[in-house]
Amino acid sequence: MSQSRQPIVIGNWKMNGLEASAGELNAMMAAAAGNSACKVMVCPPTTLIAGFAAKAAGSKVAIGAQDCHDAVSGAHTGDISAEMMADAGAAAIIVGHSERRADHGEADSLVCSKAEAAHRAGLVAIICVGETEAQRDAGQAEDIIGGQLEGSLPAEITAENTIIAYEPVWAIGTGRTPTLEDIEAMHSFIRGKVQALRGDVALGIRLLYGGSVKPGNAKEILGIEDVDGGLVGGASLKAEDFAGIFGVFS
Ligand code: PGA
Fold first, then answer.
1. 42 and 13 in contact (C-beta within 8 Å)?
2. CATH code given to domain 8-92+120-204+225-249
3. Whose CA is nearest to atom 3 of ligand 1?
4. What atom in ligand 1 is closest to the CA of residue 174?
5. Rounded CA gap, 84 and 74, in Å?
6. What span, in angstroms and rounded, lies between the C-alpha atoms of 136 and 169?
7. Per residue in 168-220, pLDDT tens?
8. Which among 152, 127, 107, 143 is positioned nearest to 210, based on CA atoms?
9. Three-state DSSP class for 45?
């Protein structure tokens, strides 16, 4: 991890969390209060963004969204724009999560439009990429990730408005993780690929690892060169676990 890239640990609550979960947010804010070594963000379901953003104002915990529509507004029943997420208090939007790609058939081009929408609304785009187990077994992991980056990255990206998360699909929610060597190799590949595509801006962009990060493996995974933090699902729902992850940076 480079000194110039401040690490960030982001919790993706997915379709979990009710008003009653505010107690976990409070405990996370308390745990993050003394931590100046890394940034902390929680991405709750959309229903909780405004309330959480109000509660977290002035704390060390930022609030993000998990997805958005790529249009500003219009006849898109049930969808929510990046501008609306910003209005609710979100600082960032996850785009291209593998669950969106799989469950909603989101292609790289749509992921790119959503990242552009986040930027248009003044928010950080957290762009996810990841290979399936079959693709890794077939030796295609770098080709797949390289293709996803080519298709999903907006033309104009900066170190401030873009974060890239490498999340091998087979490691999400399974308790399985790649070897430290595999994570290091993929992160190095991703940084090189982004540099080839967009130039030296790649050196300042944070690359997060996601997939079964937990307190027990956070120190070794988040300590890898070119891993600038984590995108955490299951272990971000409970403050004790989440704090045990971002706490490795304090
Ligand atoms: P997990 O999910 O930490 O539960 O594996 C990670 C993610 O999907 O962002």
1. yes
2. 3.20.20.70
3. 233
4. 5
5. 12
6. 10
7. 999 999 999 999 999 999 999 999 999 999 999 999 999 999 999 999 999 99
8. 127
9. coil
